[in-house]
Amino acid sequence: MNPYVVFFFLPLAWFVTSFIIEAGSLVMVPLCKYEKYREKMTLTLGALWAIIATSLVFLVVTLDTVFAPVLFVTGEVLYAPLLVLIIVLALHHFLIGSAEGSSSLGLRSNERKYLTLAVPFALLVAFLGNTIFTSVFSGYGFNAVDLLKLEIYPNYSSMFLNAFNWLFFLGVVFYVVYFTVTFYGIKERFKVGLVALTLAHTLILTSTALWLPTVFMSAVGNPWFYIFLALTYLVLYVGTHRDIPMRQAWIFLLTFLGVVMFGLFSQGRILVDIVPKGVLGQLPGVPASILLTNSAMLQAGSLVLGIAGFLVMGGLTAVSYKVLYKQGTKEERKIKT
After folding, report:
1. Of 64, 76, 96, 109, which sits with the fewest C-beta atoms within 10 Å of its C-beta?
2. Which residues cross the membrane (predicted)?
3. How far is CA 102 from CA 51, 96, 113, 292, in A?
4. Could you tell me the residue ranges of all domains in the chain?
5. Which residues lie closer than 8 Å to 35 by C-beta, 6 or more apart?
6. Residue in 201, 265, 189 with CA at minimum distance from that of residue 233
């Protein structure tokens, strides 16, 4: 698989994993009955929105640098859902910011109100992101009149209402539940996390087996996939029953690697349901490697992006964790004592 294709999945995995933390925390805040976990969730939300917004920008810049021709192929089709996603994400972060401001003023009731209002926006962002993701890989929503001439038009009913999109989205929702239980070490909800993880694996595997067979066959034929499955259950148990150091980092890393593995298992093929095998190789779909930017721009741009990603995303994440989350945790402890 082309290394530049793999390179694109790194910022994608970072964004997806970061948003999973936010979405899971946000949904659980009004539902969680245990105050000690709810406080940590609120602090986490305050530390995340800068990371997520910057991650999305970095992801788009990476896409434009690595796969500039893809924008011509997918731009017209995905313009509307991408625009709606960005608007909804902005409203979503506005509500979280309002909740954080209310908290700093001691207005706890307003904080809870704003966080509750942000929940449907988080779910909508997740659904739109999932729809774009599944559409690019499957081809649902792409009405290809002449692929060679790039005559492609959107079919939004097919994009949003196909069974693959909904089944995969349900799998992601259950994974978010598992992730949240593990991330916060909610021992009281271990069984919920266990059931959610099993359903997530089942739904994602079933959907890929039916609509992305290349991903499914690559996964089940790879021993690292089974190691990954075992680790998800192990991290759930250890994270909820043992006070292990850096629990959040372990589940973050595991999820990050899971998204990268999906990219590897796809073998860099997109639009697999509208381009049959034999047209562009032995596998169905379009190989993403033929849509790469020219080699000179690709090498220079990837180097700059790699350095920028390490400095900007790594630095922003470290500062957010240290200044906002850790400092907030210390302040909460001071108030209690």
Report:
1. 109
2. 6-31, 43-72, 78-96, 117-143, 163-185, 192-211, 223-239, 251-272, 303-324
3. 21, 10, 10, 46
4. 3-163+259-336
5. none
6. 201
Counting every residue written for the chain, the total comes to: 337
The first and second tokens of residue 23, run together, are 């979405």
- Measured between alpha carbons, how far is 106 from 93 in angstroms, rounded to an integer? 20
| Distance separating the N- and C-terminal Cα atoms of the chain | 55
Helical ranges in 184-222 per DSSP H: 190-211, 213-220
Higher pLDDT, 51 or 225: 225
Contact (Cβ atoms closer than 8 angstroms) between residue 159 and residue 131: yes
* 3-state DSSP percent of the chain in helix, strand and coil, to 5: 80, 5, 15
Give per-residue pLDDT as tens, 182-218: 988 888 889 999 999 999 999 999 999 999 999 999 9
